[in-house]
Automatic annotation (TrEMBL):
Residues 13-192 form the Glucose-6-phosphate dehydrogenase NAD-binding domain. It catalyses: D-glucose 6-phosphate + NADP(+) = 6-phospho-D-glucono-1,5-lactone + NADPH + H(+). InterPro entries: G6P_DH (IPR001282), G6P_DH_AS (IPR019796), G6P_DH_C (IPR022675), G6P_DH_NAD-bd (IPR022674), NAD(P)-bd_dom_sf (IPR036291). This is Glucose-6-phosphate 1-dehydrogenase.
């Protein structure tokens, strides 16, 4: 539909031949091409150190589309349209020389005056070169008020390095031009969490410490580190997943209603949650965190390591709404299931009204599923049909997006890439959010290092270390499997 076409732009991907570009970004742009969201004048420019001309890059991307897009979604016309937009430039981002080709290509923009051209610079490279790339773009006069820069995680490895990266980017781009991407915020179910909370009235009266017993946030993977061993061994699960993905989901569960869902109002409320997190330091880290590693990790990376591949922890939001409610977070690799879920577990009824009933009551739960099978379930206790007494039985109201809607559920990157082109920052992290998250995570890292905390071992294909179950069992709770 014409009203869904986003403004024309030059979309430049630094790291244009990398895994992220070929597996997520370009397939995501293809899906938007398939829906005819891309303006006819939009160009996609891959920048890498590979010696490819435009034709070679188009062949590479075509192969990637056939590998990463389902067969029933491949359309020859859409593939042709996307591929015809592609250009490739060989460039070493760390070398100040060799940028003439990019300068010439971006200055030669069809369809609009140079100052009005929307340029998106997607930095799908290590954060160590974010600053040099931005400086060179500025030197070449390729940064205007209409430009946007997208930063992939991780942005630094701790608070200080994060500030160094953000300062370097901030010398060139205004904060309003910087889009720090967290693809979990683009998932359909995460978006629907905002709608569920703020477009419906029935949940708001019970969305607080009076009625909520605790919250569980789980992101588990069945795969190991695959080809990311070099990066992952320097990062670990706490930096790679908790500092961004899991804390962002916690914020969406715990935040106060914004004045409207858009831009800074949402990010203001998320920042308040991060700043309200009870600090974990010293003995609290030892008691309230679990650090694990699957037993074959050393074999995969080629040597022994103390890097964690699993984290579980107990957090608490110290404000009026959530005081005393535990938020349990866990994430890990080589686990039994691939899943991403949020479980809001409500308190037991205050009085047992059915003393002679059969069966048991279970706490009401709201389950938000990011993967697999995006959707929601509201778990209730119901009466089993039949005469002669009351038999209690667990039942659920199930919303599966695949079943409820005819439309295909878009990948997170598809939505986020269009939001960048449109200039909509709501689903991207602001600098103060990133730094607040590092401020909370860093004492945990420090305590692990100072106390010499070795990861506890767990076998691949299990639910992780037994200590993670103990973390909840001490308070009479269990993980929802």
């Amino acid at each position: 539909m014409p009203d869904l076409v986003v403004p024309a732009c030059d979309f430049t991907v630094f790291g244009g031949t990398g895994d992220l570009a070929l597996r997520k970004l370009l397939p995501g742009l293809y899906q938007r091409e398939r829906q005819r969201n891309l303006h006819p004048d939009t160009r996609i420019i891959g920048v890498s150190r590979h010696d490819l001309d435009d034709a070679g890059y188009r062949d590479l991307v075509t192969q990637a589309l056939f590998e990463h897009v389902p067969d029933d979604q491949l359309e020859a016309g859409a593939v042709h349209r996307l591929v015809s937009r592609l250009h490739h430039l060989r460039l070493d981002a760390t070398d100040p020389e060799g940028w003439d080709g990019l300068h010439a290509l971006l200055k030669d923009t069809p369809g609009s005056a140079t100052e009005d051209t929307i340029r998106v610079y997607y930095l799908a490279v290590g954060s160590g070169v974010f600053g040099p790339i931005c400086d060179r773009l500025d030197d070449l006069g390729l940064v205007t008020p209409q430009c946007r820069v997208v930063l992939e995680k991780p942005i630094g490895s701790d608070l200080d390095s994060s500030r160094v990266v953000n300062d370097a980017v901030g010398r060139v781009f205004e904060e309003s031009q910087v889009y720090r991407i967290d693809h979990y915020l683009g998932k359909e179910s995460v978006q629907n969490l905002l709608v569920t909370r703020f477009a419906n009235t029935f949940l708001e009266p019970v969305w607080n410490s009076r009625w909520v017993d605790h919250v569980q946030i789980t992101v588990s993977e069945t795969l190991g580190v695959a080809g990311r061993g070099g990066y992952y061994d320097q990062a670990g699960a706490l930096r790679d997943m908790v500092q961004n993905h899991l804390l962002q989901m916690l914020c969406l569960v715990a935040m106060e209603p914004p004045t409207y869902v858009g831009g800074d109002p949402v990010r203001d409320e998320k920042l308040k949650v991060l700043r309200a997190l009870k600090p974990l330091t010293g003995a609290d880290v030892d008691r309230l965190t679990v650090r694990g590693q699957y037993t074959t990790y050393g074999e995969e990376i080629g040597g022994p390591s103390t890097t964690e591949t699993y984290v579980a922890l107990r957090a608490e939001v110290q404000n009026w709404r959530w005081a005393g409610v535990p938020f349990y977070l866990r994430t890990g690799k080589r686990l039994a299931r691939k899943e991403s879920t949020i479980e809001v577990v409500f308190k037991e009824p205050p009085h047992a009204m059915f003393p002679h009933s059969e069966g048991v009551t279970t706490p009401n739960r709201l389950t938000i599923r990011m993967q697999p099978d995006e959707g929601m379930q509201l778990h209730l206790t119901a009466k089993h049909p039949g005469p002669g007494g009351i038999r209690l039985h667990p039942a659920s109201l199930d919303l599966s997006y695949d079943d409820a809607f005819d439309e295909r559920s878009p990948d997170a990157y598809e939505r986020l890439l269009l939001d960048v082109m449109r200039g909509i920052p709501t689903l991207f992290m602001r600098r103060d959010e990133v730094e607040a998250a590092w401020e909370w995570v860093e004492p945990i890292l420090d305590q692990w290092e100072q106390a010499g905390v070795e990861p506890v071992r767990y076998h691949p294909g299990t639910n992780g270390p037994a200590a993670a179950a103990t973390l909840l069992a001490r308070e009479g709770r269990t993980w929802q499997e």
